[in-house]
Amino acid sequence: MMIALPRQAPTMDYEEQVRDVVSNAQFGDLIEFAYPIGYSHWGVYDEDGHVIHFAVADEGQLKSRLRGYIQAVFPLCGDLLLGETQIRRQLVEDVNVPEGSHVMITNNRHARKPSPETNMRERRDALLDQELPYKLFSLNCEHFATFVRFGEAVCNQIPGRTKNLECKEATEVFQRIVTPDES
């Protein structure tokens, strides 16, 4: 007697996933780049195949060489060790991810209602090209992406931390850039 196993849907390769995201995403959608080691890089979809995300800050030749050495030893997290980021607009297909990553639209992991599009665009415009330190627990790419979408910075992938809890420190950093004091 043969047992029929359920048929699994074929998995898409990374390039197919990118095409799927670009063809289905709408402005303000959260884009998740899921790394094979269990954590993700996050950005916000910005139309025309682009994502806004924490990226490597501009750097000189010496720092670039140092980054290359660090990434050779720590290929999945070398950028984090230098601790500097710049919020950039980049094609989804050009975001640097490790082999085996997956990319997808992920709007349902933060128990928040999205802000009106005009608010998201205001936050995006104010934060684009800003250079910020990278702080794993208090100012990271997921904090940035959720702040743009919801107006509150949230990170649900830090082990041992309460899920869907606003990181007030990150929200305040971003909010000061979006609405600086007029004093």
UniProtKB/TrEMBL annotation:
Organism, as annotated: Aldrovandia affinis
Pfam families in the cross-refs: LRAT (PF04970)
The UniProt record lists the keyword Transmembrane: no
Biological process per Gene Ontology, one example term: N-acylphosphatidylethanolamine metabolic process
The family this protein is said to belong to: Belongs to the H-rev107 family.
Keywords: Hydrolase, Lipid metabolism, Transferase
Gene3D superfamilies on file: endopeptidase domain like (from Nostoc punctiforme) (3.90.1720.10)
Residues in LRAT domain copies: 31-157
Coiled-coil stretches noted in the UniProt entry, renumbered to this chain: none
One MF annotation (Gene Ontology) recorded for this entry: phospholipase A2 activity
Listed GO CC annotations: cytoplasm
Protein name (database record): LRAT domain-containing protein
PANTHER family reported for this sequence: HRAS-LIKE SUPPRESSOR - RELATED, PHOSPHOLIPASE A AND ACYLTRANSFERASE 1
Keyword Lipid metabolism belongs to the record: yes
